[in-house]
Design goal:
alpha/beta, 42% helix, 16% strand, globular
């Protein structure tokens, strides 16, 4: 499924995401990912998640001194598990899955458009075939056409690769277009969890304000999506 985490500015979305991906230690409570509790040092937490999770950061977070292909290959090289020829073929495959051409692999991040940066970052996040993918504001900074295209890519990728996706976003249109379920973070807790339709019926000030925003037509779900997803 695709689960969206929404909340107002300062509500703790990014903090919670960082706890889930092992970059931050919670001051209280426990974090369990894929049935495994995240404990120990930063290195130990990241080791327990490696290979099973992928992360697409808000602005792509590509290494500027590395080519696109080298960025995508980086997680593989960290594990030292594949010979160079297989690595190159896997990188080409993941670039294609993300909608990029083989020639794009030779480009540097500074040569990419915003949409291409997101696609390259997605290819890197998926190169180890994780079962769980985290997306941090996946359509932030994209123009309407690129945003709609990236939403379509995420939906197709999640279905074809049988991924579970946790997406942090403030964009109501992306939430409605992609989410199977929505978790609303407010008042220092999850105040609602369910389908978009179920969450919209919850009487909470933030929920009323969030879903009353105008929905851009470039990402709004089509009628058959509304029926299929119960939204």
């Amino acid at each position: 499924e695709i689960l969206s985490l929404v909340g107002g500015s300062g509500s703790g979305k990014t903090v919670l995401l960082n706890c889930m991906i092992g970059l931050r230690t919670p001051t209280g409570g426990d974090v369990t990912v894929l049935g495994q509790p995240l404990t120990g040092s930063l290195r130990e937490r990241q080791k327990s998640l490696r290979g099973n999770t992928g992360v697409l950061f808000q602005h792509g977070a590509l290494f500027t001194a590395l080519s696109v292909a080298e960025n995508v290959a980086f997680p593989i090289r960290e594990l030292h598990t594949l010979p160079p020829d297989i690595e190159r073929e896997l990188v080409k495959l993941k670039l294609a899955d993300a909608g990029l051409q083989p020639a794009d692999g030779a480009k540097m991040p500074a040569e990419l458009s915003g949409g291409m940066v997101k696609r390259a970052a997605l290819a890197r996040a998926l190169v180890l075939d994780p079962s769980l993918l985290y997306l941090d504001e996946p359509t932030s900074g994209l123009d309407p056409v690129s945003a709609r295209a990236f939403v379509d890519l995420v939906r197709a990728t999640s279905q074809s690769q049988d991924l579970t996706v946790v997406m942090v976003t403030h964009d109501v249109a992306t939430v409605k277009a992609l989410s199977d379920r929505v978790a609303v973070l407010a008042d220092r807790k999850i105040v609602a969890l369910g389908t978009v339709a179920e969450v919209m019926r919850v009487d909470h000030p933030f929920i009323r304000t969030f879903f009353e925003l105008d929905i851009p037509t470039h990402i709004a779900p089509q009628p058959d999506e509304v029926i299929d997803r119960g939204t």
